[in-house]
């Protein structure tokens, strides 16, 4: 389904393919030769999404952008099934495996691999050609790549990055789930006006 959001309609190259039950919504550019497969969600909410040439977005992957966090994906990238990629910059020839997550403000260098269920955290810069192993976490600028069992080391790097402030606009000390969900509900309410382009 192709949807206009906040007055912006997707621009999809004629040589690209979007599966009938995928959603491409808002200020999205899909480059030549791309394939957006079944159940994938490509949602631009006030910020743009640009997908380069010959990219593959597999089943049920979620790509998102917000006004503060646009998403840019270079050419010849693969985003695996159930991956979550939001508000970051992915350079050319990056492999993002099944279930991987890449968060707001991250930069993933050319030719990198983010393997199954791995995470590239908020504001993290992953060097070109780097690999985040299965289930591991890349965090920091430059990235430290740590096993999930190293939670205290990960948290020591992640905490000052202030996830609530970066993502929700609420400083950690004032953020609570009531404020977060109310703010998100207000922002997401803008989808009530989405329409198929005429």
Q: What this model shows, in words?
A:
It is a single chain. By secondary structure, the protein is α/β, with parallel strands linked by helices. The protein has one domain: UDP N-Acetylglucosamine Acyltransferase, domain 1 (3 Solenoid). 13% of the residues lie in helices and 30% in strands. It contains 3 helices and 23 strands. A 9-stranded mixed beta sheet has the order 1-4-7-10-13-16-19-22-23, with helices on one face. Strands 2-5-8-11-14-17-20 form a 7-stranded parallel beta sheet, with no helix packed on it. A 7-stranded parallel beta sheet has the order 3-6-9-12-15-18-21, with no helix packed on it. Strand 22 and strand 23 (144-146) form a beta hairpin. It is globular and about 50 Å long. The two termini are 13 Å apart. The relative contact order is 0.11.
Task: Supply database-style keywords.
single chain; 198 residues; alpha/beta; UDP N-Acetylglucosamine Acyltransferase, domain 1; nine-stranded mixed sheet; seven-stranded parallel sheet; 13% helix; globular
Helix content: 10-25%
Task: Say which CATH homologous superfamily is assigned.
Answer: Hexapeptide repeat proteins
β-strand percent reads 25-35%
How many helices in DSSP terms?
3
Q: Spell the H/E element sequence.
A: EEEEEEEEEEEEEEEEEEEEEEEHHH
Strand order of the largest sheet: 1-4-7-10-13-16-19-22-23
What is the CATH C-level name? Mainly Beta
Structural class: alpha/beta
Measured distance between first and last alpha carbons: 13 Å
* Number of beta-strand segments: 23
Weakly predicted, low-confidence segments: none
Structural Rg? 17 Å
Q: Residue-averaged pLDDT, rounded?
A: 95
| Annotated CATH architecture | 3 Solenoid
Strand count, sense and barrel status of the largest sheet are: 9 strands, mixed
